[in-house]
């Protein structure tokens, strides 16, 4: 349900419907698009989407950023639906004609606005009954012909099927084992919490643990919030992401056969492609992007031992080449380093102790064993998502692993599913009532975090869930192409 007064506002409620056809867990991009596809596929259906803490825009990616944080995928590829990737750029043209090219990286908040407007329009036009619930799911219980969702509020809901759409699994804070009771307000576990960038005094030094895309966002957010002190980045490799290429170089069409073999052989093939592109006067990035259509097939072709070897030895190198940053953003980082206001160190946080006032004394141990102590006013956690689902701090995922409703994939990155996203349980059989969309499929797909992958997963999972409901409930009918007239009133909770 959406608010007719503002097309970018979704109306959340604390009301919990006792029974629905499909429940969607997670209010980010994956969850919202799963809901849209359900409404299209099952006119007249009853759906609920549950989100523990709705943000102004969906999920951390679009709801935690400021107005100038940029997307990391060009606008022309960010459409919400798999069959219309250019839709977002058309929306931009309608809002600001000529301001953004299809190849440009635009503010993430603008994509959040587009997404909410798109979802709101779909929900207003839907004949389905939709309820957006502000609550967290902490446990799932399998019933003979349904799933029961137990909520943090103590209430429950029954659904014929559940689509799990959690975001990236958070990692434990990098100071969790080395914190000697430093002031809590000095530790920023979630950089996207309101007020995180307001540092007092504004010229105090701060420490950013990590040097990837989130760390760059934090540096820019601090500067825009008026912070003037030195920012010290610390990460194990001490590298920033590399830059996106300038527009114009399309990836070459390369057959899957060029990427056969284990991780070392595949990486060697990518280096060869990059050099071929540069010899032809094109960017190395185009050569690397040639593998994108084949990433899942390559990952699946590797044995668990090969996958673990890649994660242990090659993942940091892959990350800085594959998950690149806009060139203008990296130029800002370079300017900061030249001015001495930003430093990047290779090392780990070895210990943290209280300093004078509410400051922190952070001991950084370098790769060569050397040690340095930095006194800072704030420490930001930017190490990225957790890399082991078994160490998850998410209560629902932990509960599902303990109960056997879900099992970890072979390398422990996420949860096992079949091709339609049905979760495999401890009995290794797909559960026809339980679907997974998003980052927790990375252990079997590897690429499972960007909009181009997520929009396809959402469509497939919603279609399969709708088929299940149509088989089981008399009168329910799946629509291959939904055509509905708009309504004056938004859908409500029954």
Can you describe what's shown?
With 494 residues, the protein is an alpha/beta fold. It folds into 3 domains: 201 residues, FAD/NAD(P)-binding domain; 116 residues, FAD/NAD(P)-binding domain; 67 residues, no CATH class. 31% of the residues lie in helices and 19% in strands. The chain contains 13 helices and 15 strands. The strands form 2 sheets. Strands 1, 2, 3, 4, 5, 6, 14 and 15 form an 8-stranded mixed sheet that branches. Helix 1 runs parallel beside helix 4 and helix 1 packs parallel to helix 13. The radius of gyration is 23 Å and the shape is globular.
- Specify the biggest β-sheet: 8 strands, mixed
Secondary structure: helix percent: 25-40%
Instruction: Report the sheet-strand fraction.
Output: 15-25%
Global geometry: globular
Structural class: alpha/beta
CATH class of the largest domain: Alpha Beta
The H-and-E topology, N to C, reads as EHEHHHEEEEEEHEHHHHHEEEEHEEHH
Q: Could you say how many structural domains there are in total?
A: 3
Ends: how far apart?
A: 12 Å
In CATH, the architecture of the largest domain is 3-Layer(bba) Sandwich
């Amino acid at each position: 349900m959406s608010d007719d007064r503002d097309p970018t506002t979704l109306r959340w409620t604390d009301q919990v419907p006792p029974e629905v056809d499909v429940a969607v867990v997670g209010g980010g991009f994956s969850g919202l698009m799963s809901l849209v596809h359900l409404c299209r596929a099952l006119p007249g259906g009853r759906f609920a989407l549950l989100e523990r803490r709705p943000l102004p825009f969906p999920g951390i990616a679009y709801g935690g950023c400021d107005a100038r944080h940029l997307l990391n995928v060009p606008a022309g590829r960010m459409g919400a639906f798999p069959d219309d990737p250019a839709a977002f750029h058309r929306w931009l043209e309608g809002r600001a004609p000529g301001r953004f090219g299809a190849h440009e990286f635009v503010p993430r908040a603008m994509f959040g606005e587009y997404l909410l407007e798109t979802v709101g329009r779909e929900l207003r036009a839907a004949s389905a009954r939709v309820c957006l619930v502000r609550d967290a799911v902490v446990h799932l219980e399998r019933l003979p012909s349904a799933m029961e969702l137990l909520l943090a509020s103590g209430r429950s809901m029954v659904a014929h099927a559940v689509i799990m759409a959690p975001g990236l699994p958070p990692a434990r804070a990098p100071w969790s084992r080395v914190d000697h009771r430093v002031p809590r307000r000095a530790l920023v576990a979630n950089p996207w919490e309101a007020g995180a960038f307001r540092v007092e005094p504004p010229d105090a030094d701060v420490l950013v643990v990590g040097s990837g895309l989130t760390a760059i966002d934090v540096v820019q957010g601090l500067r825009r919030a008026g912070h003037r002190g030195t920012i010290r980045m610390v990460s194990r490799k001490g590298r920033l992401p590399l830059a996106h290429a300038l527009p114009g170089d399309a990836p070459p069409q390369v057959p899957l056969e060029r990427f056969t073999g284990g991780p070392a052989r595949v990486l060697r093939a990518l280096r060869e492609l990059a050099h071929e592109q540069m010899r032809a006067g094109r960017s190395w990035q185009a050569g690397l992007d040639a593998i994108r259509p084949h990433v899942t097939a390559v990952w699946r072709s590797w044995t668990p031992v090969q996958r673990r070897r890649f994660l242990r030895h090659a993942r940091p190198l892959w990350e800085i080449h594959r998950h690149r940053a806009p060139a203008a953003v990296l130029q800002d980082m370079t300017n900061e380093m030249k001015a001495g206001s930003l430093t990047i160190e290779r090392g780990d946080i070895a210990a943290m102790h209280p300093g004078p006032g509410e400051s922190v004394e952070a001991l950084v141990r370098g790769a060569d064993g050397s040690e340095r102590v930095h006194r800072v006013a704030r420490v930001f956690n930017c190490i990225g998502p957790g890399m082991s689902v078994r160490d998850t701090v998410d209560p629902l995922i932990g509960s599902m692993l303990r109960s056997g409703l879900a099992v970890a994939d072979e390398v422990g990155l996420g949860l096992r599913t079949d091709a339609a996203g049905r979760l495999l349980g401890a009995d290794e059989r797909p559960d026809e009532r339980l679907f997974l969309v998003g980052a927790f499929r990375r252990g079997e797909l590897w690429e499972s975090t960007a909009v181009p992958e997520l929009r396809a997963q959402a469509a497939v999972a919603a279609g399969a869930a709708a088929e299940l409901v149509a088989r089981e409930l008399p009168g329910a009918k799946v629509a291959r192409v939904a055509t509905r007239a708009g309504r004056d009133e938004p859908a409500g909770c029954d």
